[in-house]
Specification:
Strand 1, helix 2 and strand 2 form a beta-alpha-beta unit. Helix content is 33%, strand content 22%. It has 6 helices and 9 strands. The protein is globular.
């Protein structure tokens, strides 16, 4: 009995690490299309190493935020990510109190159509103090402007709780969405709508990137081709 106990104590940390790695390194075990998102927070990325990872098919790069912020690593990241073979998309962090036209100009100056493989993505995480109604109206106006300029609907990124409490009820039914939910179970939204992509961890690890990284994958039968940028 003591021998069995000693063996269990010896292997338990290994079993625990395996369970944890399944959650944060799901791309090694799950049969889905996986990708990452990157901003200046990751510092200098070794893109050649990332490009050699056969499990990583796409990357979303932070381009802009609000009316005037430009991610300091965007230009470097998009050039190198392309060079080493990744499918690349760009995202904008939405600030609801900043005029929509100002934000659009900021985003378009960085997210140039000729450099995009994937749909532009709008990161929606805060109401900026607005009421639900005012926020939804603000966001709707911005999304329509983005669609008009890029000739296609953007991908929407948001958290499961933010969606359930603020965005549910049909306003985004015509948009593909990426939902952030850092649990082992796949997200299910309150209105039951289809989810294209799931960001399943904010504490992933990847060779070539220092520190934690956000990782995502496609849900169900959704494929990478669904979010490809259409060049007109």
């Amino acid at each position: 009995m003591k021998r069995i106990l000693v063996i269990f104590i010896t292997i338990f940390p290994f079993l625990l690490s395996q369970a944890q790695s399944y959650h944060t390194l799901c791309e090694d075990t799950c049969q889905h299309v996986h990708g990452i998102d990157i901003s200046h927070y990751q510092g200098n990325v070794f893109w050649e190493t990332v490009g050699n990872n056969s499990k990583m098919y796409y990357v979303y790069l932070k381009a802009t935020e609000g009316g005037d912020l430009i991610d300091a690593k965007y230009e470097q990241n998009i050039q190198l990510a392309h060079r080493y073979g990744l499918k690349v998309g760009s995202y904008h962090f939405y600030r609801a109190k900043t005029p929509q036209e100002t934000q659009l100009r900021n985003f378009m100056a960085q997210c140039r159509p000729g450099e995009q493989d994937l749909l532009p993505m709008i990161d929606v995480e805060t109401k900026s103090g607005l009421s639900n109604e005012a926020f939804r109206d603000s966001l709707t106006k911005f999304l329509l402007l983005v669609e008009e300029k890029y000739k296609q609907k953007p991908l929407i990124y948001t958290g499961a709780n933010f969606y359930d409490h603020i965005l549910s009820g049909g306003m985004l039914d015509d948009y593909k969405i990426m939902i952030a939910q850092y649990t082992e179970k796949e997200p299910v939204l309150v209105d039951g709508r289809d989810i294209t992509m799931w960001q399943y961890t904010g504490k992933g690890r990847l060779n070539g990137v220092n520190g934690y990284i956000d990782k995502s994958r496609f849900m169900g039968k959704h494929k990478l081709r669904e979010i490809r940028f259409r060049h007109h």
